[in-house]
Amino acid sequence: MSLKTLSLSLALGVAVQAAAGPARADQLADIKARGELRCGTFADVPPFAAPDPKTREMVGFDVDLCRDIARRWGVKAAITPLSVESRVPEVKLGRVDITIANLAYTLGRAEQIQFSDPYYLAKEMLAVKASDPSTSKADYKGKRLSSTKGSTSELAIRMNGSEPLTFQDTGSAFMAVQQNKSLGMVANTMTITKLVNESQTRGVKLKMIAEPMVYQPIGIGMKKDEPALLAKVNETLRAMETAGEIDAAWTRWLGPDTEYKLTRTEKVTPLAELKFEPIP
């Protein structure tokens, strides 16, 4: 082959490769090669994820799930604390591989990231002052309710036709009710149950409105267009369900012997099989 022919062949090869575009990375393969699963959790939202008061190590229900998944994959779990509003952006930017942070499925989030099969069905609940005679969420239409910023709690407030007053953390949203800045506070069942219980012995007493604001499937968030990672996450969740590992973590952090006294009734289920009204 002449030098001219060789040069032409190489040029054509480069052109074909360029046209085909760069090889797409496989995030699951990257995780295994790195030997580490970067898992985003809440920064300080017990019982899901929060620093242990003594050791400062991150602990909670979501942290247990992260570590159980990493153990099954034969890699280390690197827990990355995130704010409520950064849970989706951090996945999109690739700073975490997955997010396990009580992440509820919404239509808006589903346009940005991929969700795993849900592993439980959560409820957004409303807490108001115990002296408030109202008993229905409809009574708070047009009223100011507090929540954490960027959460499904904020979306639930808007869906109810109420006015959201948002904060960076649940503690501030709770104080807004105590200080008469809002008529009530919306959060997940666990958080509201804890705050209502705590209010019986300090501050202004609260009660929980029995009617849920919304129902929401909770899943694991990851980048879109990563079929191998999605399949592996769902496969692992089903294996953990069968082995009783999800129930064990739930019982430890949220079960009948905890301050939340909740029983987990849902199992890992494909999203398409659930009946619910998606949050926008």
Automatic annotation (TrEMBL):
GO cellular component, as recorded: extracellular region; outer membrane-bounded periplasmic space
UniProt-listed Pfam families: SBP_bac_3
Protein name per the record: ABC transporter glutamine-binding protein GlnH
Signal peptide per UniProt: 1-25
Organism lineage: Bacteria, Pseudomonadati, Pseudomonadota, Alphaproteobacteria, Hyphomicrobiales
Entries under InterPro entries matching the protein: Bact_solute-bind_prot3, Solute-binding_3/MltF_N
Domain Solute-binding protein family 3/N-terminal: 36-257
Highest taxon listed in the record's lineage: Bacteria
Keywords from the UniProt entry: Signal, Transport
Protein family (similarity comment): Belongs to the bacterial solute-binding protein 3 family.
GO BP terms: amino acid transport
Keyword Transport: yes
